[in-house]
Amino acid sequence: MSNAAPPTQPQPGKRVEVAVGILLRGSQFLLGTRPAGKPYAGYWEFPGGKIEPGETVAQALLREFDEELGVAIDPASVEIWRTTEHDYEHAQVRLHWCKVRRWQGEFQMREGQQVAWQRLPTTVSPILPGAYPVLDALAQECLNDASTNSRA
Ligand SMILES: Nc1nc2c([nH]c(=O)n2[C@H]2C[C@H](O)[C@@H](COP(=O)(O)OP(=O)(O)OP(=O)(O)O)O2)c(=O)[nH]1
Questions:
Q1: What residues does each domain of the chain span?
Q2: Which atom of ligand 1 is closest in space to residue 48's alpha carbon?
Q3: What is the pLDDT along the chain (152 residues), one digit of tens a residue?
Q4: 137: burial class by Cβ within 10 Å (0-12, 13-18, 19+)?
Q5: In the structure, which protein residues have their CB atom closer than 6 angstroms to any atom of ligand 1?
Q6: Rounded distance, CA 86 to CA 132, Å?
Q7: Is domain 15-151 annotated with CATH 3.30.70.1350?
Q8: ipTM of this model?
Q9: Ligand 1 mean position, distance from CA 119 (Å)
């Protein structure tokens, strides 16, 4: 038996899989603050969380939206969009980004978080570093849409 203490640093190669929802209302998306007690508490993030063993990305997202916001996502409206990775000092994460356009219920901030509908450029800060690549991708998509429309 080993007396080694549990690692306090993330183990190389062990990525934590995370499901993240980009809840869309027209050109706006929802951000919330990270609750007290978590790494980067108070930073703004997209709703979501770690995928539990045996869960699909969509199942994890449905559970997290219920736990954090008290709303029910329509699974048929979950569009798995892209995957990014980010290395924090507390964890190495792989983020599965999903666009969500339909949900049911009124928002209840079940973790005491603040939420805000945002459009680009965002007006809240600070935002979790791991969310920036996706904000850039959303901005790029807006630019592409604008150029397609102007050519139509
Ligand atoms: N929800 C969310 N997590 C993000 C974003 N960007 C980003 O780098 N992350 C990272 C931060 C965390 O290391 C990880 C999510 O883990 P978490 O600790 O918030 O997940 P959880 O809600 O399942 O937490 P817990 O139950 O273990 O307390 O993903 C984002 O926009 N939204």
A1: 15-151
A2: 1
A3: 444 444 445 566 699 999 999 999 999 999 999 999 999 999 999 999 999 999 999 999 999 999 999 999 988 899 999 999 999 999 999 999 999 999 999 999 999 999 999 999 999 999 999 999 999 999 999 877 777 766 66
A4: middle
A5: 18, 20, 38, 45-46, 48-50, 86, 88, 91, 93, 95, 128, 130-131
A6: 10
A7: no
A8: 0.96
A9: 21
